[in-house]
Amino acid sequence: MTVLAFGVQTDEQPLLEAAFGPDRIRCLDVFLNEDTFPIAAGHEIITSSVNDQLDATVLRGLAAGGTRMVAQRATGFNNIDLDTARELGLTIARVSSYSPYSVAEFAWTLAMAANRRIVRAARRTREFDFRLDGLMGRDMHGATVGVVGTGKIGEAFTRIAHGFGMRLLGWDIRENPACTDLGMEYAGLDELLASADLISLHVPLLDATHHLLGPRELGIMKDNALLVNSSRGGLIDTEALVVELRKGRSAGVGLDVYELEAGLFFTDRSLEPVADDTLARLMTFGNVIVTSHQAYFTREAVGQIIETTRRNVEDYRAHRTGENTLTAPAPAP
């Protein structure tokens, strides 16, 4: 039985083929959406990426073509219509966890690159311009970091912040004892936003967290605060962020995710006109760094994601469910 994999990156394909066997998986670089789901016809099992679109139309099309199982190669699943999947009797599984260090370290990479103006400096020196004008950053030691979401990734991010000697503020629905042991104080979101010199987002995208940082919340932040998002693009109201940036109200922003990234990130659009006006405006700010959802993309993390995906497929074949199973048909009476 061949597994069909959508949205496979070049560096990811050999790892998938090694895990499943080259004759047991077919890798495609196209993304799953309303135009491409017919490719899956005849494949009982497919595996999807975080930017594939599995809405009701796509799921119904997959089911009609014989697909019974979707193994998402990601932790988030906001791109999947789970209600429709249950209605169709589809098994949906995800990767509930992988290396938290990959994302936490990358979030800090964005934070420090924005703070110390690394991209601007590198561009200048390539042109043999060695001036320091406009490159002044600030010490992280002694500054206040606001960690929004203190699960495994937020905890790893906090440990790095503790190493810098920062004051630690956290916000979550429950406290993480590992973070409080490091000296983290938990606060309301408004208090955190108003106090933090650096804010980093590490919460999932749910109905309750969509546009968690909207016009009001962004307005509460310090004028010289740094903002990093390596979680999900929909946590930030991007148009509201552009408004704040136009006011000069941020020391720097590092974004590895964007709320309209599906169908855009992981593709080459360099020869096409820019159709997304909001993203285009975002790119014009010299203190903004945008990367294409690569925080998770280390050999260790991708290896863990693929191995978990393989196990999820094996569980399905063995009629087992586990912590990674999001939906599954009810057992026969």
Notable traits:
333 residues; alpha/beta; Rossmann fold; 2 domains; 7-stranded parallel beta sheet; 12 helices; 14% strand; D-isomer_DH_CS; oxidoreductase
What's the short story on this structure?
Helices cover 35% and strands 14% of the residues. It is of the alpha/beta class. This is D-lactate dehydrogenase.
Percentage of β-strand residues: 5-15%
The domain count comes to: 2
The termini sit apart by: 27 Å
* Helix proportion range: 25-40%
Query: Which outline best applies?
Result: globular
What order do the helices and strands follow?
A: EHEEHEHEHHEHEHEHEHEHEHEHE
Task: State the total count of DSSP E strands.
Answer: 13
Q: In CATH terms, what is the fold-level topology of the largest domain?
A: Rossmann fold
CATH class of the largest domain: Alpha Beta
The residue-averaged pLDDT reads 95
Q: How many H/I helices?
A: 12
Helix/sheet category: alpha/beta
| CATH superfamily descriptor of the largest domain | NAD(P)-binding Rossmann-like Domain
What are the segments in which pLDDT stays under 50 over at least 5 consecutive residues? none
Strand order of the largest sheet: 8-7-6-9-10-11-12
The radius of gyration is: 21 Å
What is the level-2 CATH architecture name of the largest domain?
3-Layer(aba) Sandwich
Major β-sheet profile: 7 strands, parallel
Protein topology:
Blueprint: E1 3-5, H1 13-20, E2 25-27, E3 45-48, H2 56-64, E4 69-72, H3 82-88, E5 91-93, H4 100-115, H5 118-126, E6 144-148, H6 152-164, E7 167-171, H7 177-181, E8 185-186, H8 189-195, E9 198-201, H9 215-220, E10 226-229, H10 238-246, E11 252-255, H11 277-283, E12 288-290, H12 299-317, E13 325-327
Parallel strand pairs: 1-2, 1-3, 3-4, 4-5, 6-7, 6-9, 7-8, 9-10, 10-11, 11-12
Antiparallel strand pairs: 5-13
Domain D-isomer specific 2-hydroxyacid dehydrogenase NAD-binding: 109-295
Protein name: D-lactate dehydrogenase
Family: Belongs to the D-isomer specific 2-hydroxyacid dehydrogenase family.
